[in-house]
Amino acid sequence: MSARRSPFPALTRYDRVAQEASGRVIAGYSTSFGWASRLLDEPVRTHVRSTYALVRVADEIVDDPDPRLTPSLRAELLDGFEQETGRALTQGRSANLVVHAFALTARRCGIGDELVSPFFTSMRRDLSPRPHTAESLSEYIYGSAEVVGLMCLCAFVEGDPQAYEHLRPGARRLGAAFQKVNFLRDLADDEELLGRAYFPGIDRSTFTDADRDVLLEDIDADLAAADAAIGELPLSSRRAVSAAHGLYCALADRLRATPAAEIGRRRIRVPDTQKAWILARALTRRTG
Questions:
Q1: CATH of domain 13-283
Q2: What's the pTM?
Q3: What is the DSSP code string of 90-107?
């Protein structure tokens, strides 16, 4: 029997350098996701790292506190980054290494503009901070987090449309949970450094334990719905997603145990020793 041939051309030296550059982004910015991504099998690991890198660069355009980045310059950079991403999805080539690596992943895994466009829409929303309504927050979370989960799902199922549709709800709930946990963890920094408040009706100066618990109940529901789907993921991604889910469950537990007034003053984190234990546990779970 002859080996099955890939419909895509072999990677060039430039392709590999672009993917390596994207791998450096996740290593430099995220301990948790960096560790969890090591549990992915190849080529899924490279695809997820390339997706993360694109998302991270866009996030830095809108979030970097550098005072030299004026609102107009941020908008110009974000517009240019989105346009370059769109061209690369069409042409399969970019002079920007991160965009090029993402385009390789998108074209191989079936990530299209229906996911990329909402992401940039949410990023653009952060350039003009204003209070959210429940509806606008839902739209923002879809574009900033749920579609990222769906991009990763495209890589997990390697473009299988039936598997994608079946697992799509769980991927969205996991992305939403991650984002809401981040909002709660970063309550102080988002307001003090970025001038943003994401949760409607929540005032940091009067934030109570009851407010915290209501937010965490919603997060718990998302995490539970996502957990039910993790066991149906392909083996190539199951352990890594289980680890990421465990890391965010641990962070949610720490937020629940932290007085609301303290959450409003400082960023809460999971110690590295606990992260290592969660990752080690994920190695022995969800393997069959």
A1: 1.10.600.10
A2: 0.92
A3: HHS--SSHHHHHHHHHHH
